[in-house]
Amino acid sequence: MSRRGYPDRALRLLTAVVLTVLAALAIGSCRSAQAAEPKRTTVRVAPASALYRHRVEQAAARAWGVHGSPARLAAQLHQESGFRADARSPVGAQGIAQFMPKTATWIATVFPKDLTAFDPWNAQQAILAAALYDRWLLDRVAVYGGGTMSECSRWAFTFRAYNGGEKALNRERSLAYAAGADSNDWHQVAKFRARADWAHRENIGYPRRILLVLEPAYIAAGWPGSSPCQ
């Protein structure tokens, strides 16, 4: 073997080492990117929803007529209790629609013909009560400052009021208005807080999950309805 062969052999060895290192770096980079990418989860409708589908469709029709979205009401009940008629929250909310006792007593006086002797533990009554309460809250969502409001924002405010009350929501909308933000846009209002931090996080997350995650899942599963946030 000539002396000239040694440099060639060393060069080939060095090239192989470099390629091996580059390959290792590429693999590591790929794995890091996969680890950084958030895991996607598939949302499935609650199995128990099949037991109540007819009642949900009836309630949506009673509250909204042909414009009702059973998928939206189903998404709300999914978020509230996972369609468990015996659900009880740590703060005392009851039943499939998670009515607080005082709210259950009050809503029966607003709709006496529909909710005679309303029992929040009665799933059929509670589903109808949730639909009627949603309609009542939606009709009370006001447009501030002569502006405009999308149907998506109107429903987001409705669900925030259902979850955390109208008073706190209206205070936060007023804070947004005073700060020059669009108080008719649910995304901008979400930046303003007039309640405990944990309660605010829960309240702004409530409509997001219903409108952007759960309702589309129920529609995809064959429930009638259409999303206002398309």
UniProtKB/TrEMBL annotation:
Ranges for domain Transglycosylase SLT: 68-180
Record-linked InterPro entries: Lysozyme-like_dom_sf, Transglycosylase_SLT_dom_1
CDD domains: LT-like
Gene3D superfamilies in UniProt: 1.10.530.10
Signal peptide region: 1-35
Keywords noted in UniProt: Signal
Superkingdom of source: Bacteria
Pfam families for the chain: SLT
Keyword Signal in record: yes
Family listed: Belongs to the transglycosylase Slt family.
Name the UniProt record assigns to this protein: Lytic transglycosylase domain-containing protein
Species whose genome carries this gene: Stenotrophomonas lactitubi
